[in-house]
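Tutorial, part two.
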Amino acid sequence: MAASPSTPSRWALPVILAAQLVIPLSIAGTAVALPGIAGQLGSDPGPLQWVVNGFNAAFAVCTLAWGSVADRAGHDRVFRLGVMIVLIASLASALAPSLLLLDAARVLAGIGAAAVLTGATSVLSLAWEGQARARAFATFGTANGVGLALGPSVCGAVVQAFGWRATFWLPAIVLLAALTASRVVPEARVTIEGRRILDLSLLRNRGYLAMVLVPVAGAVGFVTFLTYLPAAFAAIHNWSAGTSGAMMLIATLPVILAPSSTASLMSRHDVSIGAVVAVSMLCLMAGAAWMLTLAPDRPVALIVPGMLLIGLGFGLPLGIVDGEALTHAPATSSGSAAGLLNFARIGSEALAVAAYSAALTHLVHRTIADAHLANRVAAGGPGNPAAYADALHTVALAAAAIVVLLGLLVWALRRNGRGSATT
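Running the prediction step on this input gives:
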């Protein structure tokens, strides 16, 4: 029943990180290519949005299945298979002659990305120990942060220089290199009996459940604004896509720097994971509420502290939460535990982004009677900056309230779970 990992080589972590980096880069950056895709393959809103949503939906759902498969077949094998699937899907996306085939390729990429993330998280948990394990997860979190942070700007530059198909050629090149070197990824396998794909019994452990809720709060308090603040800058201040993308670096820089700094602080000064999570929740809440400063009659500089706060709130526990969550699960269930955690993370991001968009669009339509104008404004177009700002403020306050509720729930679970045995 015990885990039996081999000793990782010095190149194992870089290979894992290279493959993993593609996933958040794809999530955050693919939307930049949508105008170019629409110009060549068609602008039907449904199929066009599925270029992004198809990946996210498949990614969220398949993390559960891959977790169970990894516990049976081996986490390193699932990681390699995932890299191969995403590589094939990236090539298919780059060559897609129609929106329908592009959507299918993006769904396939989401399926493979779930295997990469689930396998990578489990390998890190089983093949590294002690401080090396903590550093590996902190670096893993930094890689995720870099991908999210640089996704819009990197993909924007690639699209401008080489066209939208290059956004899929780029990950294909990285994944080909990772697949070629993937033999250095150590074996990370456990001997188990039959296990359910969705092992909800893991949620009985309050420490694990608390860690699952932390990325949910990040989805509400950060990912929604990461996705839609560029549209807000365009609608309220008539900024170009390039200027808006550059402005987003203010929110994403803390995501790059915070994970490694947090790991160092925790090891050197005995800072607890509970303290890190508490500060993270406070930053997310305050940053969301700070969005009320974004308005047509106010200077844009006023929103800078809020953008720094949401980036810090998201970045502080990044990667560290994954390591802490898996300490609350048996080694024989590490794949299932990683799958369930990532299902909550990706699923909540997809749900939060969709809910944000729906709520903002509804509020804009309540203010603007002309449906065509309302659609244009809600999408970030010009016409009524005050209406967009009012809708943004309402949605931001709702996001702040949800983060507060999630923070209180995490605190209660950790407080009541102290001293309890691992499931």
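The longest helix spans residues 334-367. In part three we will examine how such features are distributed along the chain.
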